[in-house]
Amino acid sequence: MSLRKLIVNKTMAALAVLFTVFSSVTAFAQETAAATAKPVDMGPVHKSAVFYVLLFLLLCLFIAIIGKALKVYELTQETQGKPEGINWNTVNAVVFALFLLVGLYGVYWEYTVHGSMISHMQEAASEHGKRIDEMFKLTLIITSIVFILTHIVLFAFVYIYRYSNKRKAYYYPHNNTIEKIWTIVPALVLTLLVLKGFLTWRSIFYKAEDPNNRPLSIEVTSSQFLWDIRYPGADAIVGKRNYKLTTAINGLGIDFNDKNSLDDLIADEIVLPVNKPVRFTLASKDVIHSFYMPHFRVQLNTVPGMVSYFEFTPTVTTDEMRTKLNDPKFNYILLCAKICGANHFNMQKNVRVVSEQEYKEWLAAQKPYLTNDLRKAFNLPIPVEAAPAAATEAPADTTATAAKVELDVKNQLALKK
Description:
The protein is an alpha+beta fold. The chain has helices at 3-8, 10-37, 43-47, 49-79, 88-119, 127-160, 176-205, 318-325, 356-364, 372-377, 398-416, and strands at 216-223, 226-231, 265-267, 270-273, 278-284, 289-293, 298-302, 308-312, 332-336, 349-354, 367-368.
């Protein structure tokens, strides 16, 4: 047997492959036994960039070896005068068919795995949230059907019409009917989706105000990495802000020349009465943040130098949602949906939806924004009840005390006008 025949002999090639595999398995078994005897922590190795670079190079080497082996096989077939052994057109067509099956399984996996993650949020806890969910479901259903059908057609055409020297390609340059179908149908579907989104958007941002059910006004000011929440006092109106008035003790820049600012309250959490419309006034002190309450389907950017608004009606109390989810620790939450800095992840506030009576009790316990220090800084009168007690001093003249109380009351009334 000549050297050339020995090299191209299939039996010898098979034996060489078996020998190589046996040697590799033996070496791997020996290394495994040694590692079992003395465990090695590979964590630092797997975390290093060098490991993944070497792994990538090893993969490239493996692909190159496979390519060279196939090239040797083709040259061997050619030297033996045999026809081409591998029909690459068929191989490519089969690979496309496999990709189609894998891709369809991937779509199924996404719907069953990640779809359950989305449904974990349960139903929307606001009136407009239900319309948003309907819009998203409709869009998802239509686009999923189109996505699956078009990819089946795409990969099926690649497989069915792969190259063959037994047939000639048919030249098909144009068809007006097909052009009309794939232009008009997508246009109609997209028009439907755009109109659905537009009408939903208008119903959220252009609501007709009901004079018998005016929304509760709440101001939220964002900054790195905080949410400052201001509630109105007895006048139900949140006072004005002016960034030029921002100081160390007046961090929000509240304008106390506006009488509506005098009774405003500051809060550490957002508490909302159920089935009551709420109007948020949103602003930012530094960079762009995003006011995001996922369970209410509420998201709107807060932009420096610009005031924006979002109005919605919560429909499910915190206790009701805890019962639905069977989770006694559940809470609604306010997040920032912009990557606004290193502590972005920590920019959170607790949100509670309660009954009307619980809301009133909670509101009565909140502290006013206007402190005695701010009154001194803005030359505002200090209320009598906030003045230092004079129990240890000598009894004052009753007439003088009454006159002082009357003067304080007049000052307060003058500021309110």
